[in-house]
Amino acid sequence: MKTPIWLAVVCLAASLPTPAQTFKPIELNDQELATLRGRYVMPGRIISFGIVMTSTWQNANGEVIGATSSMHIQQSTIKPQFYVSIINEKGNGSARSQGTGTVTGGSGLNSTEGVTQVVRVAGDHNAAYNNVDINVTKANQAPATQQQGQALAAGSTMVGANGAGSLSISSTGAGVQLNIVANNNQGSTVQRLAQGGLMQNTTLLGGGNQVSNLTSFNVVLRDNVPTAGSLNGNLDQLKGLRTLGF
Predict the structure, then answer these.
(1) pLDDT per residue over 79-126, tens digit each?
(2) Which of 41, 56, 65, 227 has the most other CB atoms within 10 Å of its CB?
């Protein structure tokens, strides 16, 4: 049985798009966007963005080794740059004997995504603290900031040491990392911000240690609508983070 030509033509015509069937995007207002998961804000509204990372290790003797690494980006910022201040405090207590604890495994921690916070303990009388803060405020203009510490150039490493342990702060194409290895086999800690993820990982093998890893993201927004020129300027500044691995 042959299909009539007119029936085939009707079926073909029905399958073709018509002007009334053309997809039309629907614009969402601010109120609707505010209820969605993964909110966003136009770059022109961000007038100041900052990151502060601090890692410290205090041994049983009260001696402290650590560092603070910070970066602030504003409209006047030409190149994103981390600045490092090393923390070195003497103690006054009694020295702790060699750590004898053992921690195994954990190789998969190097492949995690997002925010990873880990504390592994094989000792007594220790304290470890990992924390991430995101602070969003509003202002008419960017706050005055003064960078403190020594500039950390891309691809470079800064080091420090005292009785508590040895410290290294490195900046590579993968991001920024603060690493502390405690003396007398007391343990180690690492805090790394790179490739869209944050790692805070502490291993304690001895006793009487206090370890802290803190990261704070600070954003200042303004309410007035930016011009096209200022919008492009903010985008250009954010592109500069790619060289640091973000």
Answers:
(1) 888 999 999 999 887 767 888 888 988 888 878 888 999 999 999 999
(2) 65
**How does DSSP classify residue 126?**
-
Look up residue 105 and give its two tokens: 């495994």
- Judge whether 78 lies within some domain: yes
Half-sphere exposure of 170 (CA within 13 A, CB side): 12
Has residue 170 been placed in a domain? yes
Sign of the Cα torsion 5, 8, 10, 16 reads negative
Burial of 233 (0-12, 13-18, 19+ CB in 10 A): middle
User: Does residue 1 lie in a domain region?
Assistant: no
Q: How many domains does the chain have?
A: 1
Question: What stretch of H or E contains 103?
Answer: none
Question: What's the rounded Cα separation, in Å, for the pair 241 and 136?
Answer: 20
Dihedral, CA atoms, 202, 185, 54, 67, nearest 10 degrees? -160
Spatial distance between the Cα atoms of 23 and 77, rounded to a whole number of angstroms: 42
Mean pLDDT calculated for residue range 40-63: 87
Does residue 10 lie within any of the structural domains? no
The CA distance from 28 to 2, in Å, is 51
